[in-house]
Amino acid sequence: MPPATANFMDTKFGAYGLPNGSFQSLGLETCVTPARQDACSSHSLPVVLFSGALATSRHLYNAMLQNIASSGYLVLSIDHPYDADMVEFPDGTIVTGVEIDSDADIELALSTRVADIEFVSNQIYNVSASKDLFPTGLRRERVSKMAVVGHSLGGAAAATAMMNMPSLRGGVNLDGSMFGSVLTTGFDGPFMLMGHENKTQETDPSWKTLWPHLVGWKKELEVKNAAHYSFSDLPLVMTALGLDGKLPAEVGELLGNIEGRRMTTLVTEYVVTFLDMTLKKGKEGAFSKVGDQFPEVSEVA
């Protein structure tokens, strides 16, 4: 996490009882060797575009996305300036978020996010931009199929992007309420909904409205003991800092009660199983094997 962003997160989450310097103390190990880079050029890699929650930095999903990437995907995580609470550019430029609270603000944020997703997908085929986007040795013509995954407002953006962009082979909405024309227009691409405990078609009208308009493969899952921000790295951060069960009750309302490493693995396994099915010709039956590992996940529809 860039330094200014880490400092901002320390201040933001300090209000919930996190010790000062928590985010500045964390790091994410990566391993990219010359041999691995050369290997990238020998085969095509499916692309996963990711959009996070409103007022949330993309860096709060780094561990989850790293796990997805390790399964053989090129993951492009998108920060949305003025929507994310802070975006820190490589040259040190910082853009802080604006207040987004009215229906009109949310609609604008959604349409902007979808435009961001489409822009990033187009840059894959932009020769000059692809040099910055891709690892050394990965040629843009080796990029194959694309899917989109989003959390919260990012999940809503994933649904609308699926409607607007035929190039997307599949989409995942992690715990996001949806709105806009997609609810009644729908689309025919594969789509998976994954919600926290008690977030289903029965409790979220947008999920119920969209469901009959999803005319392709679809699946809805509910995760018992999960909460809205369970679908981020925050539960893993709490575990890494030794803070499980030591923070105020309202933190549990945001993060749920599933241990951080398990929750990260749970989300990763289900998302990768979906991506394997839609982008790598994997079998739908793999969901049953994943389900055996995670009894807290139930298939709603």
TrEMBL record:
GO molecular function term, any single one: 1-alkyl-2-acetylglycerophosphocholine esterase activity
Gene3D superfamilies, per the entry: alpha/beta hydrolase
GO terms classed as biological process: lipid catabolic process
One Pfam assignment: PAF-AH_p_II
Record's keyword annotation contains NAD: no
Known pathway: Mycotoxin biosynthesis
Protein name (database record): 1-alkyl-2-acetylglycerophosphocholine esterase
Annotated InterPro entries: AB_hydrolase_fold (IPR029058)
Enzyme class, broadest EC rank: hydrolase
EC annotation from Swiss-Prot or TrEMBL: 3.1.1.47
Keywords in alphabetical order: Hydrolase, Lipid degradation, Lipid metabolism
Keyword Transferase on entry: no
